[in-house]
Amino acid sequence: METVDLQVKLRKTQKRIPVVMTSDEVKAVLGLLEDRYSLAAKLQYGSGVRLNELVSLRVKDLDLERGVLTVRSGKGDRDRTTIIPAGLKEELKEHLTRVREVYEKDRAVARPGVQIPGALGRKFSRAGETWPWFWVFPAPKESIDPESKIRRRHHLHGQVYGEAVKRAAAKGEIPKRITTHVFRHSFATHLLERGTDIRTIQELLGHEDVATTQISTHVVTGANQLGVVSPFDGLLRV
Questions:
Q1: Taking every pair of C-alpha atoms in the chain, what is the biggest distance, in angstroms?
Q2: What is the dihedral of CA 113, 116, 121, 125, to 10 degrees?
Q3: Domain ranges within the chain, ordered by starting residue
Q4: To bridge 155 with a disulfide, which of 3, 91, 135, 230 should be the other Cys (CB 3.0-4.6 Å)?
Q5: What count of other Cβ atoms lies within 10 Å of the Cβ of residue 30?
Q6: Can you name the CATH fold of 23-219?
Q7: Could you report the per-residue pLDDT of 57-100, keeping only the tens digit for each?
Q8: Structure pTM?
């Protein structure tokens, strides 16, 4: 068919400067979070993962000895690795010990295994019953799988976790629109402020284009790391 030029120009979506918390604000939110969500938030800020990547983590994705977190089928269906904060290793070990008890109880009563995605689930139908595939942050109760209609244990619900983060930010009276994604922006910005090169941060965040990562430089303390001081601050030195 002949191509028709409709003479229509689509409006270009403008890049917006992300919301970023200061280190003190991050501490405040983490300190005010309910205990059941605290570790998840610490790990999200400490590793820079997206919300869906956080809640869908499996036990096998955490290498605590090496300090490596593996994201499976992230945005763009790509795998990548990022860091596990050294300060969270012991807390994660203790958490996984408690999660193992939940796993053992499920197995003791022969509950259906956790969901395994796509063809992998069909090929390894019993993998969902094994410990490596169990959720790092399992839901407290079972629910119906919308696809298979099987009643099984799912992972922590992203919306429930997100609402908890918003409540904590409201308690801390932080004058910013705080969502779970702000942890990710703060991770990138704080690394830049500490001198980490932008290419490394791009790999940790899983950005295909470094231009996406560079958005964080707009909120780095010190005017894009150039060390520019406001003339108002100069007045205070006179």
A1: 74
A2: -10
A3: 23-219
A4: 135
A5: 18
A6: hpI Integrase; Chain A (1.10.443)
A7: 999 999 999 999 999 876 777 899 999 999 999 999 999 999 99
A8: 0.84
